[in-house]
């Protein structure tokens, strides 16, 4: 409101100013009227129109104006409740698309620029080595999901692949692997073979397990903390007229529910041979079930997931930082695999045998080569690609010879694994 002063009488007379009209509020009112939405509409009804309204609002400021208008109401309509406002205009900050959802969206829209935009969004946020490796993994998973959604390999390789980033990530991973191999971590005294074995023997399944018991079980089974709920130990007696390909002759104990499988194996994972610090598989299964039942009954906290299924590993990570543990979750699996290889390796095991036993204990695929050998600095990545390497004719025989030697080595490794499993079963 402004004042107009009459100079003759020197009296101030009020002058009314028209209020500013917010264009986005007008858009809101027209939208509500068009779709017959009122304060009596249910959150479910409102949520069905959320994408249409969101498309009309260009930025966060417009969304904020509309949210305020909904909450205040007008002379023609009642105000909306907080739940109704959230249903009609959900907070985008709380909603992040998963990689699979991104891929499905891109496949549905069919615009290559959408694929390229999401590919960039999954890229590195800074120049730190861990971020480069993580972003390379995210983009690789995005390509896998795009292929599963039906996007052509040519489009994927053109708009969702960064050979330079892949090569840089592989260099970093190879360097880190070589560094770990040259300077292996020393196992803390609390997690020595003797101490862990003694605590496992003294576990009483008639009592409620503690977090300390959970840690020792993770070590015993060489588990990832995220596998605590899902891992299963099963005894198999196959029909000899129809023996599955994954079955090792003479070996009856296998694991399911493990993580980190890819492609078709992730959808239909094959059982993998079971090996742990506990030589008696039935006792190992009993201890695992003991932990899982306690988590299901909410008498023990899951190390990774909350009761609602969301991921929150912080409490378990902080617990392991304390004395006498002084470690991190991912190292527990390494401790257990090393102990299991020593327990089952016999009196004079070779380094190769110990490595194979560790691989079995961690349920790694038997057709995997050593991680350090798998990161080819010259190549962009190990997955299938439409890119043809530019090599001269003279170099091709060397590549073929290398591939042949790897095949021979892998055949011998598989034969050794079968023999070792048969020996362990005895």
Content of β-strand: under 5%
Q: Tell how many strands the DSSP assignment holds.
A: 5
Rg over alpha carbons: 30 Å
Write down the overall geometry: elongated
Count of structural domains: 3
SS-based class: mainly alpha
* Helix-strand string: EEHHHHHHHHHHHHEEHEHHHHHH
Contiguous runs where pLDDT drops below 50 for at least 5 residues = 5-10, 15-21, 367-411
Biggest sheet architecture: 3 strands, antiparallel
- Placed side by side, the strands forming the largest sheet appear as 3-4-5
Count of helical regions = 19
Helix proportion range = 40-55%
The average pLDDT value, as a whole number, equals 80
Q: How far is the N terminus from the C terminus?
A: 95 Å
Region (Disordered): 368-408
Biased composition (Low complexity): 392-406
SSE topology:
Layout: E1 2-6, E2 11-15, H1 23-34, H2 43-48, H3 50-56, H4 60-72, H5 82-88, H6 99-109, H7 112-121, H8 129-148, H9 153-159, H10 163-182, H11 193-201, H12 211-220, E3 232-235, E4 253-256, H13 264-267, E5 272-273, H14 281-296, H15 314-321, H16 329-344, H17 351-361, H18 371-374, H19 396-425
Antiparallel strand pairs: 1-2, 3-4, 4-5
Helix pairs in contact: 6-7, 6-8, 8-10, 11-12, 12-14, 12-16, 16-17, 17-19
Can you give a write-up of this model?
- With 426 residues, the protein is mainly alpha-helical.
- The chain has 19 helices and 5 strands.
- A hairpin with a 4-residue loop joins strand 1 and strand 2.
- Helix 8 crosses helix 10, helix 12 packs antiparallel against helix 14 and helix 17 crosses helix 19.
């Amino acid at each position: 409101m402004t004042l107009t002063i009459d100079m003759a009488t020197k009296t101030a007379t009020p002058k009314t100013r028209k209020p500013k009209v917010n264009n986005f509020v007008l858009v809101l009112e027209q939208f509500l009227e068009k779709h017959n939405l009122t304060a009596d509409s249910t959150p479910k009804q409102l949520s069905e129109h959320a994408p249409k309204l969101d498309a009309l609002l260009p930025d966060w400021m417009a969304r904020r104006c509309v949210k305020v208008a909904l909450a205040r109401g007008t002379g023609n309509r009642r105000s909306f409740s907080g739940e109704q406002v959230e249903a009609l205009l959900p907070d985008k900050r709380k909603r992040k698309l998963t990689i699979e959802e991104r891929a499905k969206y891109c496949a549905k829209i069919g615009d290559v620029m959408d694929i390229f935009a999401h590919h960039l969004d999954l890229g590195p946020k800074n120049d730190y080595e861990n971020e480069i490796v993580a972003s390379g993994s995210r983009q690789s998973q995005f390509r896998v999901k795009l292929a599963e959604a039906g996007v052509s390999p040519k489009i994927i390789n053109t708009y969702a692949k960064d050979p330079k980033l892949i090569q840089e990530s592989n260099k970093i991973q190879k360097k880190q692997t070589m560094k770990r191999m040259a300077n292996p971590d020393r196992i803390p005294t609390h997690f020595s073979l003797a101490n862990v074995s003694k605590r496992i023997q003294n576990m009483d399944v008639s009592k409620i397990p503690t977090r300390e018991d959970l840690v020792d079980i993770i070590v015993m089974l060489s588990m990832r903390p995220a596998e605590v709920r899902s891992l299963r130990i099963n005894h198999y007696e196959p029909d000899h007229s129809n023996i599955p390909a994954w079955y090792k002759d003479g070996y009856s104990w296998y694991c399911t529910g493990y993580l980190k499988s890819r492609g078709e194996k992730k959808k239909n994972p094959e059982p993998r041979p079971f090996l742990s610090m506990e030589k008696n598989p039935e006792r190992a299964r009993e201890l695992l079930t003991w932990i899982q039942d306690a988590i299901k009954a909410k008498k023990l906290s899951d190390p990774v997931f909350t009761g609602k299924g969301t991921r929150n590993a912080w409490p378990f990570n902080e617990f392991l930082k304390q004395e006498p543990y002084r470690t991190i979750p991912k190292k527990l699996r390494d401790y257990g695999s090393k102990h299991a290889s020593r327990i089952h390796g016999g009196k004079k095991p070779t380094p190769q045998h110990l490595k194979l036993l560790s691989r079995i204990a961690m349920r790694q695929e038997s057709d995997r080569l050593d991680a350090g050998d798998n990161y080819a600095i010259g190549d962009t990545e190990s997955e299938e690609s439409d890119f043809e390497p530019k090599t001269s004719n003279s170099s091709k025989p060397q590549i073929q010879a290398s591939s042949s030697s790897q095949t021979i080595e892998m055949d011998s490794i598989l034969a050794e694994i079968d023999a070792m499993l048969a020996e362990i079963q005895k």
